[in-house]
Amino acid sequence: MSYEETRTYVTTTRAEYTPYELHETTGCGPQLDLDYLRTLPGMLKLAQIGLCFLCFLCVLVGGPGYFHGVGFTTFVAVFGFSITLLLLVLYLFHVVDAYEHLPIIVVEMIYCFIWTIFFFIAGSVLALASVRFTGAGFWAVAAVFAFGALMAYALDCYLKFLAWKNNETARGGGIIYSSSSNRTTV
Q1: Does some domain include residue 64?
Q2: For residue 20, is it within any domain?
Q3: Considering only CA atoms, which of 44, 20, 87, 58 is closest in space to residue 145?
Q4: Domains in the chain, number
Q5: Which of 60, 91, 99, 110 is most buried, with most CB under 10 Å away?
Q6: Distance between CA atoms of 152 and 140, rounded to whole angstroms?
Q7: What is the reported pTM?
């Protein structure tokens, strides 16, 4: 007596759309990716670097050097230039992508907030000093650049705050989403 049973199997196929970061690397280690410069945070970093440099240059050129506000403005402009340039290099070479577990966005938000306050103080001191001292016309120009840097750092701080609230991670370059042919079926 042969016992035969008919079995029916039901399978479910599900398609998921997952965005992914496309990095075209040919070797090991960090690769230069200039796509980050086309994003708003990349443009803000370039503006911050340029405004810090121009503010430092104007402070260096114009006015008496014995005023204490000049030393503080030089500190703010030089360290703002250096730290922002370092951050730009880390984003351009995708070094921040390797450290997703670190709160890079929070650290950068705190840095931008502190430098916003520093540039407010530096710009106010330079504006007052340019009126007080004769021959300090470049300090007024440096104050304009300091307030421009203040705006750039404030906007960057706000964008980092929004990214932190949305639980985003720091990424270099632009995000490229997968096409429909690359969907995963399970």
Answers
A1: yes
A2: no
A3: 58
A4: 1
A5: 91
A6: 19
A7: 0.75
Q: Is 182 among the domain residues? A: no
For residue 184, give the H/E element and its range: strand 184-185
Domain assignment of residue 95, yes or no: yes
Judge whether 110 and 138 are in contact, CB under 8 Å: no
**Residues whose CB falls within 8 Å of the CB of residue 156, separated by 6 or more in sequence, listed in order:** 41, 44, 45, 48, 108, 112
**pLDDT score recorded for residue 8:** 72
Range of the domain at 168: 31-173
For residue 58, give the nearest of 48, 47, 50, 66 by alpha carbon. 50
Arithmetic mean of pLDDT over the chain: 83
The per-residue pLDDT for range 110-161, each reduced to its tens digit, is: 999 999 999 999 999 999 988 888 778 889 999 999 999 999 999 999 999 9
